[in-house]
Structures are given as C-alpha cells and as structure tokens.
Amino acid sequence: MKSILKLKTIEDIDRELSIIIACEKKQKADISLSQVYDFLAESIELSIQRIGSTNKRNTINKLLGKYKYAKLLSKGNYTKANQIPGFPPKDLGDADSALLRLKTSLTAFRLHSGPFAEHSVFGELDKKQWERIHAILAVFLFGYIQLYGDEKLRFAKEREQRKEKSFTEKKHNHPQKKKDDHETKPSGHNNRKWKNKKKPHHKGNKNQGGGPR
After folding, report:
1. CB 137, CB 43: distance < 8 Å
2. Separation CA 30–CA 35 (nearest Å)
3. C-alpha 42, offset from chain centre
C-alpha cells in the first residue's frame, strides 16, 4: 500500500509510532494493528537475531540482490508488484502485546552494533542498510492504518512548526553576505561609460587636440 509517509531511520519509525498510538485510528483493509506491529517487529528482530544463518549465494545472486536493494531505495516504497513475502501474518488479536514487542525490537536494534543477519533477498547488509529496509517496510505497513480526528491535525501542525523552526535556524546561522553599497561606488557599467566618455574639444583647435600633424 503506497504512502506519502517518508521514514529513513529507527528514530523516524519510533516517532511515527508515537503519533499512531496517540491518534484515533482505524484499519484501511482487513489488516489489524497486531498484524502490522508483529510483522514489523519480527523483521527487526530477525535482522539482529538471525546471525550466522547464511544462504548459499553465487556471484549472480549477490549482484541481483544488490540491484534489487538499490531499486527499492530508489523507489522508496513497496508496490503491489513487489509485495512482501509472508505478509500479512496470522492475526493473534492482541494489539497491546504486539505493540510492546515492536517497541522492544526498536530499542534492541538501536542498541545493537553488530553483526547483522543476511537478508534473504538483498544479501549482506550493514546497520545503516538494514535501517533503511526497516524504515521502508514501516512506511508500507503503517499505510494500513488510517489516522483521523483532532490529534492527527495537531501532530501535522507540530511537524510543520518544527520544519519552519529548523529552516529559520539554518538561515540565521548562515546569513547572506552583505552587498556593496552601490550608492557610494559607481557600478562597473557606469565606470565603463565614464572611461569611454570623450573629452570636449576646444574651439580653434583644428586637429582637435591631436598635436601637430
């Protein structure tokens, strides 16, 4: 399910999750909150727990995995033509337990420095690469949750205020250079006119000040 939501880091996922928790919400399709939370939590858990389990990948598969990873990053989201294997999982019906599992997995990933598991499709990934995968997956899964009500509007307004504040601070820290005072100094165009201006000729000077011929 395509979404305009943009997430790139674990912190972004955590921040969006806090908004989902605070807002009124309903599911967009036959996918429950527990399914969304459980699947994302499982993906994060496997990236740090399934260490040592490697797939036999030849050179072609490795190159193909890198290509698919780069293509996913360029798109920035999963599409209907590129669905996620294993989703949706079985609905266990306990959204609170699934939410706690997701929060725990986010903290575990944040504290984990390595090593990381090999991805079943993309191959070997480091922490930053896995983080991008989780963020794109979160965008896809959170797309099944529809937020509404005053809480959503309040969070959207706060986001805009943070963006404006950040822009203002950057502008303040990098002020534009002051331009020279054009009123006190002639411009280059006027200088050229002044240099090319002919001197007035005196009457009686036949050769117009050119000296004896």
Report:
1. yes
2. 10
3. 23
